[in-house]
Each structure stands twice: as C-alpha cells, then as structure tokens.
Amino acid sequence: MSNAVKSYLLVAQSTDPIYIGTGGYTIGRVDNTIVRDPITRIPKIPGTSMAGTWRYYMTLDQMTNGSGENKPRIQCAGQDEYSHGELGGDKGHCGKCIVCNSFGYSKTSSSKQGLVSFTDLNILFFPVYTRLGTRWITSEQVLKGAGLIDEKIEELKKEIVAVSENESGDKYINLGWMNLETKKREIHIDLGKVEHLTESDIIIVPEKLIAQIINANLEVRTSVSIDPNTGAAKEGALFTSEAIPRATYFYGNVHIFDRPGSGSIQDTIKDALCNSKQYYETLGIGGMTTRGFGRMNVEMFDDKLSENACREGGV
Questions:
Q1: Cβ-based neighbours of 204, under 8 Å, separated by 6 or more
Q2: pTM of the predicted model, to two decimals?
Q3: Radius of gyration over alpha carbons of the chain, in Å?
C-alpha cells in the first residue's frame, strides 16, 4: 500500500459486556438484539460506532490537552447542526482543528472528506465456559483475517475442534452446552499483539460452528423498569437484552489518508488517535454505558512493522 495511506491494526478487549443495539424490539430469544454481520450472523462492533465515539474522545482530549489556536470546540465532536453556516463562524464545526481534518466537515462555503477510515471490529477470540475453565474460540478465517497465522489448517470436520498440545489428551471438550471431539493443533498462532492469552487458552472451531457457538454463549440480562412512585418494579416493563461478554477480543483496521497538496498530517492524526483511545477504558462504546456496559481496551499496531503504534519503540 502506498504512503498515501497508512494502515493500523486495531486489537480491542472488552472489559465490560458490549451492547450495540439494532434499535427497537424483536420477537425472539431476547427483546433487545445486538448488531450482527448479515453474512456470518456473528456480532460485531460497527465502524460507524468506532468513528463516532473516537471523534468525540479526540475532541475531549484535544480540548483538554491540545495546544495552539486551532483547538477544537465541543461542537466539533458531533453532527454539525449549523452546516448551512459559513466556515469560520462561531457555531458548528470549526473546519480547522485536528478533529475536523481527521473526520471531515461540511459547510456552505467549504467541505472536506475525513482522512480517517474505520472498519468494523470483528470478533477475534470469544470466551466460552468449559469444564477445564474458560477458553477462547476462533476459526481459521478469523485468524487469517487478523494476520495471526500464515499457514493453512487441516480442514476440520463439523464435530471436531483443534486444541493445544497441552489439552490434546482430552478426547472431548464442552463449549457451553456442546460436547465436541478434539484433535491436536499443529500450527503456531502469533499472539504478540494479544495480551493475557496463551496458546493453551485457544480452541479453533470449524467455520460452520463458530457462529452457533458464539450466539449460544452471549450474555443475556433481564431488566425491569422501576415505578418512581412506588420504588418497585413497574408492571409490564420486564425486558431482556443480549450483549457480547467481557474478555472478548476484537480486530479491525483504521486507515489514515494523506490528501495531496495539503501537507502530510498522518503522524499528527495517529498521535491524536493514540492519545484519545484511553477514553474507551472509562466511557466505553455502545448503549447502557452508565449501567455496566461498554468499556474496552484498544491498541493500535503498525501493519508493516508489527509494532505497537502508540508506544515509543514499539511493543
């Protein structure tokens, strides 16, 4: 890829359950469902959610720690309610700060496309309870998509999963309610970008099973609205919500473009992203962040150097 685009791998770990809803109610296992990939039916964090929250967090960080005359204002964080106004006015997007240049803006007199592009965050390792303790499942396609393996895995039959050598002595292992036959895993998984996991923790499952296992092991919470007059449960206000459980690992990409003729600010944007990603650890992403949902840790890695882009000297 040319120098006009710098790409970074995003690796995130949820520290709370994550709920990004589809909107409205559904008739089914739960009332409030979460966003899924329409092809695989596996839950994900949409790139739109990443872009919206990161724009807000970058604004907060730059307003507090930024310097110079082009510091953003809080209106730069969200949708411009004064897009019909002129650039340089005292309302809406300023069009000059690092936030507006990174994520774009639109005014009557001037508009610019953003220089930052986010992909969806897809599940990399998903935690499942087994009789041996918690294990994290994944699949060959997922590992290849994240760049953690290069070699091809021997095709797994529908009822067989690949485990590490340490656990290959157990002929069967349960993944939630499913009891599956095991085989010894022959390949090495590069976990240099994934903290707190070892190869013994990982189980590779067939592509045909991974969506079923993930959807069967999502966290489901039952909630009820409180009647403010009585302080007790409100009649007819019971509802259920599903969420991606804590300790789930995700992967995706962020691309930073270089607009010809305007001077390169790719490194400045990268530094601004690095300085503001810490807000995901406290303010989170998605819905119900005030009720124990949404927090996660996010790391950025240079695609070419395989180094942590936000730490001096790499990993």
A1: 137, 138, 139, 140, 143, 153, 156, 161, 162, 163, 185
A2: 0.90
A3: 22
Q: Using the 8-state DSSP alphabet, how is residue 69 labeled?
A: T
Domain boundaries, the chain: 5-19+47-119+245-302, 125-217
Q: For the residues of 8-46, what is the DSSP string, one character each?
A: EEEEEEESS-B--B-SS--SSS-SB-B-B-TTT--BEE-
DSSP H or E segment with residue 73:
none
Quick check: 91 and 78 in contact, CB under 8 A? no
Q: Mind giving me the DSSP string for 177-221? A: TEEEEEEE--S----TTSTT--GGGEEE--HHHHHHHHHHT-EEE
pLDDT digits 0-9 by tens, 104-160: 988 777 788 899 999 999 999 999 999 989 999 999 999 999 988 877 666 666 678
The kind and range of the H/E element at 270 are: helix 266-276
Tokens (6 digits) for 35: 């966003």
Q: Give the 3-state secondary structure of residue 278.
A: helix
- State the Cα–Cα distance between residues 12 and 252, nearest whole angstrom: 9
